[in-house]
Amino acid sequence: MKTIMTLSLAAVAAVSVSACQTQQQTNALAGGALGAGAGGLIGSAVTHGSAGGAIAGAALGAGTGAVLGSSLTPGNSGQCARWGYDYNGNRTCVAYY
Fold first, then answer.
1. Across all residues in the chain, what is the average pLDDT?
2. Mean pLDDT of the 5-21 span
3. At residue 94, what are phi and psi to the nearest 5 degrees?
4. Please, is 80 exposed, middle or buried when counting C-beta atoms within 10 Å of its C-beta (0-12, 13-18, 19+)?
5. Domain boundaries of the chain, sorted by first residue
6. What are the residue ranges of helices labelled H in 1-97?
7. CB of 70 within 8 A of CB of 28?
8. Contact call for residues 29 and 69 (beta carbons, < 8 A)
């Protein structure tokens, strides 16, 4: 049972990461995942092993982690040095200086 749960969680994580198109989205996803894990552990410890406390902590941690991960993405440093095109044909900057 543990093997099936581990494999299914790994598959869900792989699929969710593949949908991220920007660095900000990737950072928000990673922050949310780390926040959910930490919040679940803290919520469980504070409520002495209560499942409700762990779920509440994971939910609060995921939201906080996603917001922090998204907001801490470094911005572009200045002007565009080289232009390129994305898969939709939109002009995007691929190198900054």
1. 83
2. 69
3. -110, -10
4. middle
5. 22-96
6. 2-18, 23-46, 51-71
7. yes
8. yes
> Which pTM was predicted?
0.59
- Residue 43 to residues 1, 30, 31, 53, 60, Cα–Cα distance (Å): 25, 20, 17, 5, 9
Here the tokens at position 75 are 């911005």
Mean pLDDT computed over 6-28: 73
Residue with tokens 């390129």: 84
CA 23 – CA 75 distance, rounded (Å): 10
- Token pair in block for residue 91: 């002009």
pLDDT value of residue 77? 59
Nearest CA-CA partner of 62 in 32, 86, 34: 32
Give me the pLDDT at residue 56, please.
Answer: 92
